[in-house]
Amino acid sequence: MARMTAADAAVAILRAEGVTHAFGVPGAAINPFYAAMRRDGAIDHVLARHVEGASHMADGYTRTRAGNIGVCVGTSGPAGTDMITGLYAAAADSVPILAITGQAPVARLHKEDFQAVDIATIAASVTKMAVTVLEAAQVPGVFQKAFHLMRSGRPGPVLIDLPFDVQMTEIEFDPDTYAPLEPHRPAATRAQVEKALDMLQESAAPLIVAGGGIINADASDLLVELAELLDVPVIPTLMGWGAIPDDHRLMAGMVGLQTSHQYGNATFLASDFVLGIGNRWANRHTGGLDLYRRGRKFVHVDIEPTQIGRVFPPDYGIVSDAGAALELFVEVARERKDRLRDYGGWVEQCAKRKLSMLRRTHFDNVPVKPQRVYEEMNRTFGRDTRYVSTIGLSQIAGGQFLHVFGPRHWINAGQAGPLGWTLPAALGVAAADPDTPVVALSGDYDFQFLLEEMAVGAQFHLPYIHVVVNNSYLGLIRQSQRGFEMDYCVQLAFDNVNSPELSGYGVDHVKVAEGLGCKAVRVERPEDIASAFEEAKKLMAEFRVPVLVEIILERVTNIAMGTELDNVVEFEELATLDEHAPTAIALLD
Ligand SMILES: Cc1ncc(C[n+]2csc(CCOP(=O)(O)OP(=O)(O)O)c2C)c(N)n1
Q1: Whose CA is nearest to atom 3 of ligand 1?
Q2: Which of the residues 232, 319, 419, 507 is marked catalytic?
Q3: How far apart are CA 483 and CA 223, in angstroms?
Q4: Is the pTM here over 0.85, yes or no?
Q5: How far does residue 417's CA lie from ligand 1's centre (Å)?
Q6: Alpha carbon distance 1, 176 (integer Å)
Q7: How far, in Å, from the CA of 402 to the mean position of ligand 1?
Q8: Rounded to whole angstroms, how far apart are CA atoms 369 and 362?
Q9: Span from the CA of 476 to the centroid of ligand 1 (angstroms)
Q10: Is the bond preceding residue 367 a cis peptide, omega within 30 degrees?
C-alpha cells in the first residue's frame, strides 16, 4: 500500500479509468487536486475560459469515442453552478461526464464560508450521483463508484465535490492494484427477442427506429446487419443519426417535426410496425402521439426499465442494452433466414419516396440561402467528418440537409439544446480525436454565447472548422414565435461602428475570431462557399488553430417544420430536377 493525499488517489483513479484529458478552470478550493494532476502528469489539462465551456468540452470529448469519459474540473461556488447546464445537456442525452469541484473545508460547510454552496443538492436532478465527500478515506470508493455508475445502465453524468481538507488528507491507496468495476448492462433474453421478431414478421410494412442507445453501445454494425438480414428500412433518431450511413439503401430518412426528411415522415406514416431500439420517443421525433401511434404496433427496447411505457405504452417492451439485444436479434434472424418474410416491395416503396420527396438545396441567391451552405458542406467535407451542432434553424437545417455516414459523426446536444454548446463541444471532440476532421455548425447567436473558448482552441492547438451561418435574426425563435409578439428589444443586428460594411448584421465575427488567435474567412456569395471551405482546410492544417467560416445569410429564412408528422410546412418547392438537390441525389446512385 502507498500513502498519498486523497487528491493524488483521485487522479490515479482517473488515469486507471482511461481519462486522458481534463477540461477546467482552477481556483483556491481545487488547488490540491490541480497539484495532484501536476504530480501525476498523465492527464492533459485544457484551460477553459468559462466553466460552462469546460463542461461542454467534457461532453464533446465523451461523445467522440466509445468508452470515453470527459472530465471537467472547477473550484467551489460559482464553478459548480456554471457546470449545471453542461451536466443537464449530458444527462438529457445519456452522456457520461464527470464533474469535479472543490469545496470549503468540512468544518466550515455550514458557516456560509466564501464560495461554499451546496453543489451536490443543486446538481442532484441532472446527475446519476452528486456527492460532497466528507471522509477522505471514501475518496477512492466514491470515484470507483462514479465510473461504475456512469457506465452502467443508461449512461449519465456524476458530480464529485471535494472539500479542501478532504483533498489534502493522506490516505492509504494502492494505485497499482486498482481495477475498474465491471459495468452493469442488462441483456435481452432469447425468448424476448424471438417474441419481438415474431411480432415484426406479422407486419407488412415494418421499420426499425434506431436511437442513440445503439451509438452508446457501439452497436451500429449490428444494427445494419440486422436491417440487411430482415430487409427492413431504418429510421435513425436525431441521436441515432449515423448508426446507418445516409447512403445505405435501407436508410429511410429521419422522422419528426424539425430535423426530419419529408420522405422519412411519409414512410413512417405508411408503416404498420416499429421496432424502437435505444430510443426514447422524443416529442420532436413523434409529434402528436395519436398520429404517431395510429395503425401501428410498437416494440420498445431500452436499457433503462423505467423508460418502457414512459411516453406511451408499447405493445411489447424489452429491457436491454442495445448492443446485447442486437446481437441476439441478429443471431435469431440468421437462424430464421430461410423463412423470413419478403419485404422487397415495401423497401422499394420507401426508396421511391426518397427519390421523389427531396428538398431543394441548390439556390444561387445573394444573400445566400442556407440550403446552399449544406449542399456545399456535403460536397467539400469528407465522409469521415464529425459534425458538431446544438440548436437553432442552423441545426434544424443541418439535420435536414447534411449527410452523415457513421456513428459519432453527428454530435448534437439534442434534448437540452443549450446555446453556446457547439464551440466548446467541438474543442472536446478535437481533443478526443485529433485525426478526424471536425466541422462545427452554429447560428450567430449560438456562436456568440461562449465564443471566448475559441482562444482555448488556439492555445492548445485543437483545430476544427466552425461554420457560422449569420442571419443576425434568432431565426428559430422568430419562426416559432407562434403568434406571440416577442419582439421587445430582441434584435441581434446593430450598426457596428468598427465594421460599417456589416450594416444590418452587427458583430464582426471575423475580427473576434482573429483577436482570439484563430483564423477566419467571410463569404457573401454562394459561388465562393466551396473555395472558402477549401481555404479553411488549408489554414487549419497550416496553423493548427480553429478556423471560422462565416457565411452571411439572407436575414429571414423559413426552414420546414410543423406540429404533426403530416403537417410539416414546406417553404420551398421540392426538388424536381437532379440539379436542385445534387448532393442528396448522389447518395441514391
Ligand atoms: C441557453 C439558451 N437560451 C435560449 C435558447 C432559446 N433559443 C433557441 S434557438 C435561439 C436563437 C438561435 O439563434 P442563432 O444561434 O443565431 O441560430 P438561428 O436559429 O438563427 O440559425 C434561441 C434564443 C436556448 N436554446 N438556449
Answers
A1: 419
A2: 419
A3: 42
A4: yes
A5: 8
A6: 9
A7: 20
A8: 9
A9: 7
A10: yes
**Contact 476 CB / ligand 1 (< 6 Å):** yes
- CA nearest to 264, candidates 204, 345, 207, 343: 207
- Do the bridges between strand 21-24 and strand 44-47 make them parallel or antiparallel, or are there none, so unpaired? parallel
Alpha helices in 1-77 (DSSP H): 6-16, 31-40, 51-64
Grid cell digits, residue 455? 482562444
The best mutation among 393, 467, 505 to test binding of ligand 1, ranked by most ligand atoms within 8 Å of the C-beta, falls on 393
Active site residue 477: yes
* Other Cβ atoms closer than 10 A to 458: 19
User: Measured from the CB, is residue 473 less than 6 Å from ligand 1?
Assistant: yes
Write down the catalytic residue from 308, 477, 492, 574.
Answer: 477
Q: How far is CA 577 from the centre of its chain?
A: 34
Give me ligand 1 centre to Cα 585, in Å: 31
| Other Cβ atoms closer than 10 A to 213 | 30
Buried b (16+ CB within 10 A) or exposed e, 306-332: ebbeeeeebebbbbbbbbbbbbbbbeb
Tell me what pLDDT residue 482 has: 66
Residue 501 backbone dihedrals phi, psi, to 5 degrees:
-65, -15
Query: Would you say 132 and 101 are in contact if contact means Cβ atoms under 8 Å apart?
Result: no
Evaluate whether 172 touches 3 at the Cβ level (below 8 Å). yes
pLDDT tens for residues 115-172? 999 999 999 999 999 999 999 999 999 999 999 999 999 999 999 999 999 999 999 9
Per-position b or e across 376-409, b if 16+ CB within 10 A of its CB:
bbbebbeeebbbbbbbbbbbbbbbbbbbbbbbbb
